[in-house]
Model the fold of this input.
Amino acid sequence: MFRLITLMLLVLLATQAQAQKWEVGMQAGAAGYQGDLNQRNPLQVSGIMAGLLVRYNFNGYATIKASISKAQIEGADSTSKYQQQRDRNLSFFTPFYEIAMVGELNFMEYLPGSGYNSFTPFIYAGVAFVNYTPQANYNNQTYDLRSLNTERTRQPYKGSAIAIPFGAGVKYNIWGKLSLTADAGYRTAYTDRLDDVSGLYASPSSFTDPIGYALSDRSGERTGGINIGTPGTQRGDGRKHDTYMFFSVGISYTFLGQKCYYK
Done:
């Protein structure tokens, strides 16, 4: 599915090259996460992101943007300032892809290439689709946590989810048809599994794979082999959704015909 949508975006780039109101570009920056392994810091950066974008400008104030991004987030209890989380000792890293469609509202009329009003703040909101793969390193190897079913749910959880992006930023027309954008945005994901942690500790007897059990409760690595996770007690923080965020800078090119949309 991601390959198909990527192809569609590339087709848009090619077929709209001579059209009015269209913008194409790229963005890159930092990615962060807030969830079971980072419950309190909404600004904690833990990875990077990069992507492509296509923007359609209805006028100088209203815009719709489609984007595809690749990113990674991570977290580790060992870095927490809270003893309870350090004792739990879980960790993860999650590479993921995001496809998003957002509407942008410029505070001031923004018309790239027009020669005036080269700056505006903006806000945005929309919908996104995220495909994610939580993983962990153990004994110098990398394991897929979803396939190990560390909380012994009846079926492994889905590796994709809907997310709601929202945020704010600024646009600056640096030269002619080239624009620079900086923005910060949060995504409320309709899953609590971006970090693989959500429900309860499972019974050791429910595991047939010793690796699955080892990664379900890693507290013994800090206590000399004695695990503290009691079966049936809370493994995560009890909240229903994880959040991830992008802090990015982008550059875009606006295609303008002889009859520009601001004339």
User: Anything to note?
Assistant: Residues 188 and 243 are 5 Å apart (CA to CA).
